[in-house]
Structure formats: C-alpha cells, structure tokens
Amino acid sequence: MDTWKVELQAFAVDFINWTIVLTCLFLKVPQIFQLKNKRPSEIKGISLQAITMEIVGYSIMALYNFKNKYTLNTYLEYLALLIQEYIMLFYVLRAKGHLANKYTSITSVIYIVSMSAFLIEIIPMETLNYLVPICLPLSGVAKATYIIGMIKASNSDAISMETWGMSALTNAGRFFTVFMDSADKHLLLNYSVSVILSSAVLGTAVYYQLQAQTPMISTRRREPSVRRHYHVD
C-alpha cells in the first residue's frame, strides 16, 4: 500500500478515536440531567439492574484493554463512561431511597475490592479472557431492560434520546477503529451488537415520546341536538 494511503488511514483512525473519546466525555450527561431532579414515580424505563450491568461491563472491558496494552485512546471512553454511570447510579439510588441501604454498601465494597484485585494482579489478568464474552450478554440484557421498562410504563420521559443516539454512533465508530487497529473478534462482536441494541433503545424512546406528543382524539359521543319550539300566544 502506498505510504500516503497508510498515513491517511492512520490519521482517519486517530481522528475517529479521539472524536469518540471526546463524545463519550459527555455521552451520559443528557441522561444525568434527565434523572437529576426526578421523583421515584417519574423514573420510568430505567432500572438499577441495567445501570449495574453496564458498570460491570464497562469495568471488564476497560481492564481487558489495559491488560492487552491496547492504545489508550481506543478504550479511554470506558473510563469516562464509568464516571458518568456512577453519577447516574447515585441519582437513581437516591430517587428510589436505596442510597443508605446496607446492600448498596456491601455491593460497592465487593466491586471496589474486585477491581483492585485485578489491577494489582491478585486475580490473574488472564481471567479477563473468560470474562470479556460475558460483557456481550450483559450489554444486551442491560439495553433490553431499558426497552422492556419503557414498554411496561408506556413512557420514555426518563430516557435521553441524545444519549442513546450518541451511543449508537460511537459504537459504530469504535467498531471501525478496532477493526483497523487490532481486529479483536471479542471487541468487534461486542460493538456490533451494541450498535443494534443502542439503536433499538433510541427507536423505542422516540416512539413513546412521539406517542406522548400526539393529541388525544376525543371520542366523546356528541349529544343529539334538541329542536326548540317557540309558541307565540
């Protein structure tokens, strides 16, 4: 391949990589603002289980990329997304009254200890090779949970369309950059499914928000008119 083509390809990959990273710095921000001042009854379509599964999936993927010494800009977005997911989790826990729950504290400690054990290699990093395939069903179930939540509530007010639109686009971009950089089959499968499911969440949210904006057609039966008769004496 000509040198200029190689350089152009490398530039395109780097440009997309950094565009994705910069986008992911704000990816969940619209969703966070949607949740910030919501009451428990208003948080429809979002569950603790979905957020927890996303946090676990992002954590595993970040550790896997780190362990394989992939270029930092190919997985830096996971770190940005994790911070935003923690904030989302905080608001949902607060809204549902679980912030001071003992189970929340126990789960948080288990998570922190597990991540630390991987980083200092108490748990062999090779274990991640077996955990990465779990991320795909985790991601799928998490996104399916969002969709099911919206369908059950017939409402998507707590879902940010901006967040899910950006999610679909960044996953598509990441599929391309991984294909050009390492062609890691685990990552390619993960990103391709994520594109489909993020688009499905977006489509469901758009559908219910359009439904909410559609004016209700009055079906009230019109009362029959009564002809009045006036008599002049």
UniProtKB/TrEMBL annotation:
It is found in: Membrane. The keyword Transmembrane applies. The keyword Transmembrane helix applies. Keywords: Membrane, Transmembrane, Transmembrane helix. The chain crosses the membrane at residues 15-33, 75-93, 105-124, 130-151, 188-210. It is a multi-pass membrane protein. Signal peptide: none annotated. Its main location: membrane. GO terms for cellular component: membrane. It holds the Pfam family PQ-loop. This is Solute carrier family 66 member 3.
